[in-house]
Write a structure and sequence with these properties.
Elements: H1 7-17, H2 22-29, H3 33-41, H4 61-69, H5 103-113, H6 119-126, H7 130-137, H8 152-155, H9 160-177, H10 183-188, H11 192-197, H12 220-228, H13 237-241, H14 247-254
C-alpha cells in the first residue's frame, strides 16, 4: 500500500498553491486541522519547503480541482504500481537476538499458567515455532531441566494488552465449546483490568486453616474467678506465703 511522502511539506505546498480547505488537507496528509491552520498562519513548519505532490506522482491535478470545487471531496492518493505487494507479511513475531534465549522460559510460563492458549496464540505472543512449543508441552525440550517459567510481559516479549486479548479469545472459545472450567482456570482467564477491579477477599493460608477461633486471651471463666476474689485474700503476707506461726519460736526462746 503506497503512503504519502513528506506529509508536512505536502501540506505546506497545498496551503500555498491551492484553495483547498484546511479540513481536506488535514485528512489527506494525516495531520490535525489546527496544524494546517498553523501552517497557513506561519506558526507551524516555518522554513519547510513545499513538496509538490502532483510533480512527484502522488496526486492528480483533477483531484485538486474537484477538492477546490467541492469542500466535501476527499483527496485520494494516486496508486503506485511499484508499491503493489508490499503489504505486511503475517508470520511469527520478530524477537531481538538479546531476548531469544528467554523464549523457552516464557513458553513454559504460558503453558503452565494458561494451558487454554493454543500453540498458534503462543507463537504470536512470543515469536516462536510450534515444534518448540510442543517440545516444552511434552517436556522433551533439550534444556527442559534448566528452564524456569517467567512471565513474557516481564521479559518484554509481549504486551499485557496482547496477553489479555489472547486470554479473552481463549475464554470465548472454550465457552462456545461448552467446556467446563475449574475455579483456577476461570481465574486465569480473567484479564488484568478485570482482576484489578475485583474486590479483595482475604483468605487464610492452608497451613493455619481451622485455627480461626484460636485465641491467647484468657477465657471469661477465668475473668469471673479473678473478680470473685476479694482484696482481703492478698492483704496478709503471712497467709499469702503460708508462713508458720511464731508461737513455737517464742517457746524455744524462753527455754
Amino acid at each position: 500500500m503506497s503512503k504519502l511522502l513528506h506529509p508536512k511539506a505536502t501540506a505546506v505546498w497545498l496551503v500555498d498553491n491551492t484553495t483547498i480547505s484546511f479540513k481536506q488537507i488535514a485528512d489527506f496528509v494525516g495531520m490535525h486541522e489546527l496544524e494546517i491552520q498553523g501552517i497557513a498562519d506561519g506558526d507551524v513548519a516555518a522554513g519547510v519547503k513545499g513538496f509538490d505532490p502532483v510533480a512527484n506522482n502522488q496526486l492528480e491535478q483533477r483531484e485538486i480541482d474537484q477538492a477546490q470545487n467541492s469542500p466535501l471531496h476527499r483527496l485520494k492518493l494516486k496508486p503506485n504500481a511499484a508499491a503493489a505487494g508490499e503489504e505486511k507479511r503475517r508470520g511469527p513475531r520478530y524477537t531481538p537476538l538479546s531476548k531469544r534465549q528467554d523464549r523457552p522460559a516464557s513458553i513454559l510460563w504460558l503453558v503452565k499458567f494458561h494451558p487454554e492458549l493454543s500453540d498458534g496464540q503462543i507463537s504470536k505472543l512470543v515469536g516462536t515455532t510450534k515444534p518448540t512449543i510442543q517440545a516444552i508441552r511434552e517436556r522433551t525440550h533439550w534444556n527442559i531441566a534448566n528452564i524456569q517459567p517467567i512471565d513474557p510481559v516481564a521479559l518484554g516479549l509481549c504486551k499485557q494488552s496482547e496477553l489479555d486479548t489472547a486470554v479473552q479469545k481463549a475464554a470465548a472459545k472454550r465457552a462456545a465449546e461448552g467446556a467446563v472450567m475449574t475455579d483456577d482456570e476461570r481465574r486465569r482467564l480473567v484479564s488484568t483490568e478485570q482482576s484489578l477491579s475485583m474486590d479483595t477477599e482475604p483468605r487464610l493460608p492452608t497451613a493455619i486453616e481451622g485455627l480461626e477461633t484460636f485465641t491467647l486471651s484468657p477465657s471469661s471463666d477465668d475473668d469471673e474467678d479473678e473478680d470473685r476474689k476479694s482484696p482481703a485474700d492478698f492483704s496478709d503476707a503471712d497467709s499469702f506465703f503460708n508462713l508458720p506461726d511464731n508461737d513455737d519460736d517464742e517457746d524455744e526462746d524462753d527455754r
